[in-house]
């Protein structure tokens, strides 16, 4: 939510309805469920000021990441989110894309548990003057954490995706907001296969498929 | 009845009593100050303070069961990411409202995907981001005004909701005109913190 001018608040006050004044108590027991869910979380540390401004360096340059969403969307196959992913039938185009992206960036050693991608706006049409460093760590319960070099565009929601280089499958990790830049990676997702991190602007049009309006994209590499 | 103008509200400190201190930065509550490194008591305090707000905002878009699920997701996300909250950018209320809006939209997007997967027709229309934002902002405004000290709450409510001028507020309440203006000025300083969160 952007900062709103005081005049807007004054105008807004004149449209307040009785529904806006109504508060409904959550059902009994809901807090207990919340407390139980976070009971074993580690103790929080204050976020350093530089967290969102200085992404850690990437060991080696990444190959260019070119994904043709127009080609994928033309098939209009639904791409489900999280644990409800679906496969896309993309044929030879996907195979060509795989060669461009380069699958060799992912170490096949099962012991490797940390992956990093430097996601950039290069070759994307949606404007965004910044980059993001995506880090996936953990073993049985992997998480993807994003650090941004610049504030994200205000307005429409931004969704985080993991994508196979050949576009045969993709999974949404969820919507980005100020509180959530860390996402759980579903346990059935092998990041060695879903090696592209993509952030896209997703309008609230009821269409759950990727909009094709990516602002950041990068290829994961093991470190 | 003349409408109070926005410029009149902005200039409410023009002839405030000389003995009144200058307006300072909006107040940060103890919970907001300690939240980033909070303990279990802070989670309880956060829920007690904002549970009904978050749940009520969810209920404006979804049914009871979904509202409970989303409310749970909101507080878990807020707690796990509390280190990212910055009281200098605004209050916990607008910060939670932003999380709640995204979780509501995420809920609809998830349902839409599921609906497509099983080829069902969506049962409820998805609210737009702007609709949700309007609703949440109006609810934040109501809560922020309710939390003002009694006299400031009365004066601000008359200015905002009843659209009275400073002179009319003074005449109706018997509060001296200078005090009305200083109450509005201080009230607005507090409202600014409770109403907005500047995203970085």
Write the layout of secondary structure elements.
The complex is a heterodimer of chains A (223) and B (200).
Chain A: H1 6-13, H2 18-21, H3 30-37, H4 69-74, E1 86-87, H5 92-101, E2 115-119, E3 132-137, E4 143-148, E5 158-163, E6 169-176, E7 182-184, E8 196-201, E9 214-219, E10 221-222
Antiparallel strand pairs in A: 1-6, 2-3, 2-10, 3-4, 4-7, 5-6, 5-8, 8-9
Chain B: H1 6-10, H2 30-34, H3 40-59, H4 64-80, H5 92-117, H6 129-146, H7 150-160, H8 166-173, H9 177-195
Helix pairs in contact in B: 3-4, 3-5, 4-5, 5-6, 6-9, 7-9
Give a verbal description of the structure:
The complex is a heterodimer of chains A (223) and B (200). Chain A is 16% helix and 22% strand. Chain A is of the alpha+beta class and 223 residues long. Chain A has a domain at 69-222: Sandwich (Immunoglobulin-like), CATH 2.60.40. A five-stranded antiparallel beta sheet of chain A has the order 1-6-5-8-9, with no helix packed on it. In chain A, strands 7-4-3-2-10 form a five-stranded antiparallel beta sheet, with no helix packed on it. In chain A, a hairpin with a 5-residue loop joins strand 5 (158-163) and strand 6 (169-176). Chain A is globular. In chain A, 35% of the residues are buried. Residues 46-65 and 72-109 of chain A have low confidence and may be disordered. With 200 residues, chain B is mainly α. Chain B has one domain (25-195): Orthogonal Bundle (Arc Repressor Mutant, subunit A). Chain B has nine helices and no strands. In chain B, helix 5 packs antiparallel against helix 6, helix 6 packs across helix 9 (177-195) and helix 7 crosses helix 9 (177-195). The termini of chain B are far apart. Mean pLDDT of chain B is 79; it is low at 1-7 and 12-25. At the A-B interface, helix 1, helix 2, helix 3 and strand 6 of A face helix 1, helix 3, helix 4, helix 5 and helix 6 of B.
């Amino acid at each position: 939510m952007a900062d709103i001018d005081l005049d807007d608040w004054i105008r807004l006050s004149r449209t307040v309805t009785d529904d806006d004044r109504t508060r409904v108590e959550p059902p009994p027991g809901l807090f207990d469920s919340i407390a139980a869910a976070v009971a074993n979380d580690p103790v929080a540390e204050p976020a350093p000021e530089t967290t969102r401004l200085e992404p850690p360096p990437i060991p080696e340059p990444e190959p260019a990441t070119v994904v043709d969403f127009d080609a994928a969307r033309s098939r209009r196959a639904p791409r489900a989110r999280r644990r409800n992913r679906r496969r896309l039938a993309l044929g030879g185009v996907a195979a060509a894309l795989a060669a461009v992206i380069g699958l060799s960036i992912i170490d096949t050693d099962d012991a490797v548990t940390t992956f990093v991608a430097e996601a950039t706006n290069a070759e994307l049409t949606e404007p965004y003057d910044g980059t993001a460093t995506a880090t996936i760590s953990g073993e049985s319960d992997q998480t993807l954490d994003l650090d941004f070099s610049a504030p994200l565009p205000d307005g429409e929601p931004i969704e985080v995706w993991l994508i196979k280089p050949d576009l045969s499958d993709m999974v949404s990790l969820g919507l980005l907001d100020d509180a959530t830049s860390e996402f759980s990676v579903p346990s059935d997702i092998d990041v060695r296969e879903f090696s592209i991190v993509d952030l896209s602007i997703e309008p609230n049009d009821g269409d759950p498929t990727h909009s094709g309006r990516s602002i950041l994209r990068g290829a994961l590499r093991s470190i | 009845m003349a409408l109070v103008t926005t410029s009149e509200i902005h200039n409410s400190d023009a002839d405030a009593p000389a003995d009144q201190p200058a307006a300072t930065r909006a107040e940060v509550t103890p919970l907001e100050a300690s939240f980033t490194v909070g303990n279990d008591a802070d989670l309880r305090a956060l829920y007690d303070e904002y549970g009904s707000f978050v749940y009520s905002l969810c209920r404006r878009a979804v049914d009871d069961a979904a509202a409970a699920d989303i409310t749970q997701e909101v507080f878990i996300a807020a707690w796990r990411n509390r280190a990212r909250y910055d009281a200098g950018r605004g209050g916990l209320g607008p910060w939670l409202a932003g999380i709640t809006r995204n979780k509501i939209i995420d809920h609809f997007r998830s349902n839409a995907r599921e609906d497509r997967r099983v080829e069902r027709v969506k049962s409820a229309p998805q609210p737009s981001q702007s609709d949700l934002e309007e609703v949440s902002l109006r609810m934040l405004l109501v809560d922020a005004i309710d939390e003002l000290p009694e006299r400031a709450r009365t004066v601000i409510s008359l200015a905002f909701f009843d659209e009275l001028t400073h002179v009319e507020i003074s005449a109706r309440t018997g509060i001296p005109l200078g005090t009305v203006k200083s109450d509005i000025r201080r009230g607005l300083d507090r409202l600014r913190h409770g109403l907005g969160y500047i995203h970085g």
